[in-house]
Write a structure and sequence with these properties.
3-stranded antiparallel beta sheet; about 550 residues; 7 strands; mainly alpha; 21 helices; single chain; about 55% helix; elongated
Amino acid sequence: MTTTFIDTRNKSDSASKPDNKSAHLELDSLNLSAESVRAMADSAGVGVVSEEACHLLAHDTTYRLRMFVQDAVKFASMAKRKTVMPPDLDYALKVSNTEPLYGLATKDQTPFGFSSGGGREVHYYEPRELDLHQLVTSPLPKLPQEAVFKAHWLAIEGVQPAVGENPATVPRDTQREATLNLSQLKTGGKPAGNKPSEMGNKAGVIKSATAHELSVEQQLYFRDITEACVGADEPRRSEALQSLSVDPGLFQLVPRLVDFIANGVRVNAVQHNLALLIYLQRMMKALLDNTGLYVEKYLHELIPAALSCVVGRRLCLRPETDNHWALRDFASRLVAQMCRNFSTTTNSLQGRVVRQLHGILCDSDATTATHYGAVVALGELGVEVVKTFLLPRVLLLGEAIHAAMEDPAADQIDRIDADHLRSAVIKYAALSLKASRPTTDDRAEFGRSFGPHLGPILAVQVKQLRVKEAQHQLHLQQTKLSVSVRPATPPASLAQHKYLIVSSKPGTPTPSVGGSNQGNLLHGDPMTSQPKVIMLSKGPVDGAALLTRTSRTEPEY
């Protein structure tokens, strides 16, 4: 296609403004004849075209060409130019919702020649003359390099080597500093808490937004890791989660992985897809466990994704059979983990999460499953949170649970939800009461404080927890005492008529050697049960050689 430049300057006075009348005359002369349409049809291999069709096509094409040239002239005028350039033609095509032509942009004016004769006017491109001597003597261009393949180590024993082919790993402190610098730039370069006098006249430098592009290898890794985490292959999913939890070079993929988790939870929570919600929460757990990644700046997406699985009204298609309680428990632990790791006095993360959960717990229109998630999440945040926000609601929760259990019109799902809610309230309230109340556990006092439905049960549960704690402390003391009076290790050379018993059970204590406890050894003492080989010797025996011979298949006597 030949591009023609239209000069809208007045021929009589080039310094004056463009003459609109002259431009309109040039546009009026822009007509496409029926003979031109017939010639185009012949060149395109079209058969016989009627005269009427040629006239209609010529008229329509002329109209569209005039509109196109008018738009191009407008763009040239807006650019304070008197000559229409190829970019003006591209903009005119874009305005008409037509794909522009490529490869015609040039900074110089394309020279066109004009010729007339025989009643025809032709515009043609004047070819440039080349000097053959200069063309022959000019040096040849360099040959393109041949494509080669180079092998390099992606990882050696789970550690990525620092070579140029592998992406560079950025330490977590560097990621944190970059985030803090970005927050300072948003506030005009003035960190919070600094006085204007301390900052002087230093102004913040606003950086331009740049696209966060990934290499081809990173795109393939992202595709494979996401498919493996939400796929049906459990071994492959385990490998993918292991990679997410230990690989420090994923900092460039963290924004996309977080966005994948957030969008996945948003979609599957609406579709009640319990399996995919569990897989996405496991992905979130792996990212939080990776000590080489700085995920604090993505909490605004991670916390809503986790809380949606904690307090969602319905997370599965069959609530009476599907174990959506495990998902709520797991997501509650994730919320508690994020609050413990990232909550500070500046962001007040835990305070905001607790207020949200307490509001849901006080909402009478929320479902029993939603109340269960709020109770579990508050319980995972610690005994002080339970003491402040859950214990004052135990009386009302007990009445609601009792009403749901005793209501004859309630279905099986309501009873199952009420039973799980009761178990959660008793579990976390008992732990808080054991730590905050005195040792006297009066059932009547518990009944007055927490109601007749949950008060006696809490009293029994707290008493059992105190007993278990006392037994555990006693066991620890006995263990320390036994370790302190443990006899010295026997020498390598054993006395005559000694017994050596080697246990085949993995993880059992060190074999007992000696002659004073022969009865216990032979009668199956718990510390040396399931003997594999019993060796008898009448003379001095080297202990190391004896243990070496026990690795053989057949015992020696």
